[in-house]
Task: structure prediction
Amino acid sequence: MTIQKHKIRFDIISIFPKMFEGYFSDSIIARAQKKRLIDIRLHDLRRWTNDRHRTVDDKPFGGGPGMIMMIEPFYRAVRSLRLLRNKKTSDLKQKKSTNRVILMSAKGKRFTHKDAVRLAKYNRIVLLCGRYEGVDERVARKICDEEISIGDYVLTGGELAAMVVVDAVARHLPGVLGKSESLTQESHTEEGKTEYPQYTRPANFSPTDGKHWRTPSVLLSGDHKKIKAWRDQQTKTEDKN
Result:
């Protein structure tokens, strides 16, 4: 029996779409695209502006520093991607859907391993990348299904965060990784747990005369029961830290 492979289309909307080309053209992500397991489409937000300056931002109401990205270009972008799902209203949200529209935001929910697994079940994910001082709040409330942050810090834009999400989600699609076991044995598969330390050749590395950085002898013993016990213990040790 042939197993139907699940495919995800990522639409990334940014004012700097070329930033993604280098990362997505190499390594696992590039191979996944070549095998048609994922489909990544980059869109320039300025395409959906309607003035000769291709304006995407304006001053914040109420005053304050910086510029705020306007709702109109984002709304037109998502609508043009045929994600206006509720024809009776202008609201782009819908509870039950195979699509997900996400705003990369410093005030969003922290992105975790569980989120990567959850998002891998969707057929299409649209990632909106903000810039400047922020994005009009109506983008989050009326256009997006959720806001995601990759950490408690501020980036100059949502592009790096979007790359992180694509990478983390894509790994959970069948066929993207060389061995499916890699997913079950890596860090964060269980909440709060990180993977045991890994070593490879040479077993004894001497950076300078008289110094030796050795591999733990149990890993060289060939005793798989002892190796498993050591790895389990190391995982627990990492948890305490």
In short: The helical segments are 21-24, 27-34, 71-80, 113-119, 137-143, 159-170, 181-184, 224-240.
